[in-house]
Amino acid sequence: MKLTIYQNGRSVVFTSSTPILLSTLLTKTHNTISLPCGGHGRCHKCKVIARGQLSPLTEIESAFLTDEEVRKNVRFACMTTALGDVEIILPEQPRHQILTTGHMPEFPLIPWAQGYGAAFDIGTTTVAAYLYDLTSGNCLASDAEKNPQSVFGADVISRISYAVSEGTAALAAAIRDGINTLLSRLCHQAQIPIASLSALVFTGNTAMEYFLTGTNPTALAQAPFVQDRWFGEFCSASELGLAASNASVYLTRSISAYVGGDITSGILATEMTAAREPVLLADIGTNGELALSHHGELLCCSTAAGPAFEGAGIFQGMTASHGAISQVCAKDGTLSYHTIGNTTPAGICGSGVIDAVAACLTLGFLDETGAFDETCIPKELRASADGVPAIRFPESDIVLTQKDIRAVQLAKSAICSGIETLLSHAGLHAKDVAHLWIAGGFGTVLNTESAERIGLIPSGFSGRMTAVGNAAGMGAVMQLLSKEMIATAEELAQRARTIELSSDPVFCEAYLANLLFPDCES
Ligand code: FES
User: Rounded distance, CA 266 to CA 51, Å?
Assistant: First the structure.
């Protein structure tokens, strides 16, 4: 049977001799469709338009697709099987705004290779890349792209579970393809041949390093969740199937199964261990990775925030791209908002969600349990969507649902409780911490007042929170340019102590308490 896939004005034809699930077809053919729940039928986000000989609508599709969507041949890719010739039309992929800049301290330039090199920060959602002249230490190009592994699930856990059941080959191929694409774009920008690259450094969370190297991640999926590969090692680019075949590769040392080399790199770039006072680093994304330095001790933890802060898992969530509601405030008894590109809103991104929840609390639209208080919400903002009550942004089709609020409560409680647990283990309070560095693209756009208002950050950090950009990427660059920085990073990773939150009584108690929003009356 003939399977034709259309996206962004291109079409590609595949054939199959047996019926095939659309999500399996799209995954195998490396098409950019997001499967946030890994194809388990829970997220209802894997919508495609499909025509031809298809399996009948499932009960879930009948329940969650609108009549209009059914009329337009919208299907859930993970529930629909191609039985004969089929045409699939994928949603347009916007070009994402991905943060590549960050703070880098001064450090000695002691190259471990000659010529040119590239450093990569492989995030669960995005990959940032930097090309450097290894002798001068000058940046020649930088670029970023979505992590192509998103077809295997939006978060680390979904991808690990895919790799445990199906093997790592497809995940490794996806990220290697993505890296090769970035390598050719970087070299094109700098006008140098890929073959002239002699050094590559990769940092990322532990699972990302497992997938890049094709390592079986079963150890990350089973109690006691102790990794069986720590990295902090060299290999060759050709071993990993990368286009820069003459390059040596260094893989940043990770700290534990869920505190990866990206945090090692972030600790290096922020120089937090050099501070005399206690300092916290929070890298908030799908996974919240946290580190606390105080009196020579380095405590870390990782807390599963879920994808809400990246706009995924939210009914009308989207990445921070054109048309996303990115800022919201309470004004004249209603919600006032700004969209990226000053255009008609197409959805809401993570920073907009946090602002919106904070504004709803301020306006009394939400109570401390996270329930909408309909008596306080103006009639024109009241809505219902996804089978639950919702609030509509003025003069738009965009809503925030009760389920979205619940997703935010789970995510913000995970981060806040992780911070409180680290502080508790160190015998500290928020007021004792000199700085809270917030790393990652999300930290740069986060309104810290809103973050405190909804309880994403414990109270008491006002005025001492600073966004440090892509600290992991900057740490990777430091390791690319200096063997001394590699040694320092390895020492930091070995010295860091990880607090396992799932079995920690302080965390469990804090997590329940922090599900509530702080004091709605203030
Ligand atoms: S419902 Fe299909 S990927 Fe989640």
Answer: 47
Mutate to test the pocket of ligand 1, among 27, 34, 42 (most ligand atoms within 8 A of CB): 42
Is the CB of 313 within 6 Å of ligand 1? no
Q: Which atom of ligand 1 is nearest to the CA of 40?
A: 4
With bands split at pLDDT 50, 70 and 90, how would you rate the model's confidence at 215? very high
- Amino acid found at 380: E
Distances (CA, A) of 373 to 40, 65, 352, 406, 460: 33, 28, 20, 15, 28
Cα(2)–Cα(15) distance, integer angstroms: 5
CB of 197 shorter than 6 A to ligand 1: no
pLDDT digits over 289-316, tens only? 999 999 889 999 999 877 677 766 788 8
**Spacing, Cα 94 to ligand 1 middle (Å):** 20
Chain mean position to CA 406? 19
Which amino acid is located at 434 in the chain? A
Helix axes of 261-270 and 471-481: crossing angle, nearest 10 degrees? 80
Instruction: Tell me: do 77 and 163 sit in the same domain.
Output: no
Residues 242 and 278 in one domain: no
Q: Are residues 444 and 299 in the same domain?
A: yes
- Parent domain of 445: 270-307+408-470+501-514
* Whether residue 316 is found in the same domain as residue 298: no
Residue 56: exposure state from Cβ atoms within 10 A (0-12, 13-18, ≥19): exposed
| 0.85 surpassed by pTM | no
